[in-house]
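Typical record is below.
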Amino acid sequence: MNLLIMGLPGAGKGTQAARIVEKFGVVHISTGDMFRAAIANQTEMGLLAKTYIDKGELVPDEVTNGIVKERLAQEDVKQKGFLLDGYPRTAEQAHALDTTLSTLHIKLDGVINIIVDPAHLVERLSGRIINRKTGESYHKIFNPPTDYNETDYYQREDDKPETVKRRLDVNIAQSQPIIDHYRTKGLVYDIKGDQEIEFVFEDITEVLLKLK
């Protein structure tokens, strides 16, 4: 079974990806892991990526696409299938992935798309507060400190609601064309992420058992 998983920051994608890998035995391929492995193994594309990373530059799409192709060609993927997480990030990368899969004679079975109302995600992601004295992190709603008062706690700029909203807006703009691309192929399975983790996974499992 060959899958993509998509979802906005805070939607629970990482949690569900780990459960899918455990239950269905597919290989979890995340962008970060892929880059680290390619560089450590000194593959052609890994060495090329390192030249950009060492200079503090963004790795170009063609190098990222090449690293993905190297990884998808490996034996464990052929035997177990894969769950691709964090790629593609753009419509151009989605088209490149189509070409890669076609070249490797791999069929994509489905795209798990975890949907959560962006307003809920802002609440979820912007609730983090930090104790000025201890540096401990809490969440205003899900894990509030017992002694909360505004003087003793602060919020990082990245965690403030307006910053979180901007980040989500960028993600929505980037991800929508990708989802539209796969939706035209009939590959997208929308999963309601605004429910308990167990129920989200039950819905995913129901889809994947039909795809097996």
